[in-house]
Task: structure prediction
Amino acid sequence: MRFLLTALAFLFSVSTHAQQKDEEVIKKIYNEALTNGKTYDWLHYMSKRIGARLSGSPEAAAAVEFTRQVMDTLGLDRVYLQEVMVPHWIRGNKEFATILNSKRIGSRQVNVCALGNSVGTGPAGVSGGIIEVKSFEELAKLGKKAVSGKIVFFNRPLDNTHFDTFEAYSGAVNQRGSGASEAAKYGAVGVVVRSMTTALDDAPHTGSLRYAADLPQLPAVAISTKDAELLSSLLKNEADLQFHFQTNCKMLPDVLSYNVVGEIKGSQFPEEVINVGGHLDSWDLGEGAHDDGAGCVQSIEVLRIMKTLGIKPKRTIRAVMFMNEENGLRGGTKYAQLAAKEGNKHIAAIESDRGGFTPREFSVDTTPEKLAKMAAWKPLFKPYGISDILAGGSGADIGPLKPLGTALMEYVPDPQRYFDVHHTAEDTFEKVNKRELELGAGAMTALVYLLSEYGL
Ligand SMILES: [Zn+2]
Result:
């Protein structure tokens, strides 16, 4: 009995000691992030000096070079590029759209932008009657007779009763992703999609669509939510309203691009890899500051903080800047293909792709046992505003690692303002708060540190 008590006391003191040490290391990590952090300067360069970084563009190539050079200055064990062929879609001259000859307001120009990957209309544009639907089911019910020769207007708003705006987004985004091909089934000539935002604003929000292989490719635009409301209100009394839009976008041949990878080799288990990343490409309308310059600079900062504090991680840490998340996911797909071949074990991957806002949670897609192990770390994060480590989704780029048994995680900041700027001209450096960005980097570094100490 006495022996048992002594053993228990010993174990207790070991675990208390470990917890104290972890608390101290995490404090140092946050201190470094908040007093010497580099994320804000790096993000400034990416947003203001490089700017929008759509796959295949010269700016995307410049961002590859910039992040490679930054990581080269950090004294890492390895910095390298992974070749990946990416789609090269260009917007061309600015699009325009007009409500024609309304009995109530006459003709009026409305705010639109082409959806990514869309074909252009050609110089003549697309004109015709316009028919509003809220769902694919409603469209199917209308059928060919009602839809043929018309422009289809998908106008199901995001459901703002969700606390998590990403759930609202998920509930509406199939209109943008598949609406063009759904409308093509019934002989439509073009597609207008209500912007994917929780806000009522004048900015059209772009984003990618995917054409089904066996259907005609219809030109598609996003319309601002305010103009979607206007159009919808007119259609209630003028079912025969005419609409016109013209776009100049096109898809060019694929271009060679790269994922950028920086690595610190594990001191005890180098064959176990922990991956932390964001995506380097961005939409062409803004500066890609929140989406996803923030996630990229936070991921590089994880490595910088570890090197600066002299933390020698037990397991290998990799920061990955994925290319082409926005309109193809080629970088994430390529990374997972190479990971499957390299023989290392990818135990965990964390993505930051929900903007550089105030830290809230980590969501984890893994087994209940592994989640329970991570949930025990919650008290270590409490002083820094991370209130939960819970089961949930992860990022698009790391999704392809799932078949390798990798535990997938996402850094979850406050979601209330993200869709105000998402995929618009408003996604600029000025919208990012320095401390919020740095707190995110601190949180990600702390989680990577714990994963590297204790494995999964
Ligand atoms: Zn993103």
